[in-house]
């Protein structure tokens, strides 16, 4: 069985995120993201870092959750796919999920409390009920 993989992008949010709605009413987030990457050259060495800027979009629940968590200047890792820009010129990265990049971001993890699980104790079976004999009513005296 192969490992499922996705396209990912790692970079800095370069513009202030803009929220809007699509024509169908779904929530949409748009921002620009800068990516600094080195390319491997044919001789096995790497090129100098090059910075490029790309369009980043999110839809639906991902966009809604990003509304309070994503800011200009944040370093993020996003997974999704690349598609042709809706205006027809260029490409945009559609993020299905994202998170802050741990190497550049200090953060605190707040975990929801988990249920306390008691150790497993097998139940002792309850014996079946003992049938009780009920005496019939005495016949009336004649």
UniProtKB/TrEMBL annotation:
<dbReference type="InterPro" id="IPR012340">
    <property type="entry name" value="NA-bd_OB-fold"/>
</dbReference>
<feature type="region of interest" description="Disordered">
    <location>
        <begin position="117"/>
        <end position="142"/>
    </location>
</feature>
<dbReference type="GO" id="GO:0003697">
    <property type="term" value="F:single-stranded DNA binding"/>
</dbReference>
<dbReference type="Pfam" id="PF00436">
    <property type="entry name" value="SSB"/>
</dbReference>
<keyword id="KW-0238">DNA-binding</keyword>
<dbReference type="InterPro" id="IPR000424">
    <property type="entry name" value="Primosome_PriB/ssb"/>
</dbReference>
<protein>
    <recommendedName>
        <fullName>Single-stranded DNA-binding protein</fullName>
    </recommendedName>
</protein>
<feature type="compositionally biased region" description="Pro residues">
    <location>
        <begin position="122"/>
        <end position="142"/>
    </location>
</feature>
């Amino acid at each position: 069985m192969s490992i499922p993989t996705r396209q990912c992008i790692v970079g800095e949010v370069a513009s202030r995120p803009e929220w809007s709605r699509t024509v169908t009413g779904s929530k949409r987030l748009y921002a620009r993201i800068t990516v600094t990457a080195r390319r491997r050259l044919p001789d096995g060495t790497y090129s100098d870092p090059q910075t490029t800027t790309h369009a980043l979009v999110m839809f639906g629940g991902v966009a809604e959750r990003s509304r309070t968590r994503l800011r200009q200047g944040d370093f993020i890792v996003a997974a999704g796919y690349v598609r042709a820009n809706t205006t027809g010129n260029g490409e945009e990265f559609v993020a299905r999920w994202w998170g802050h990049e741990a190497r550049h971001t200090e953060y605190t993890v707040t975990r929801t409390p988990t249920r306390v699980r008691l150790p497993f104790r097998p139940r002792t079976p309850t014996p079946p009920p003992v049938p009780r004999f009920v005496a019939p009513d005495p016949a009336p005296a004649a």
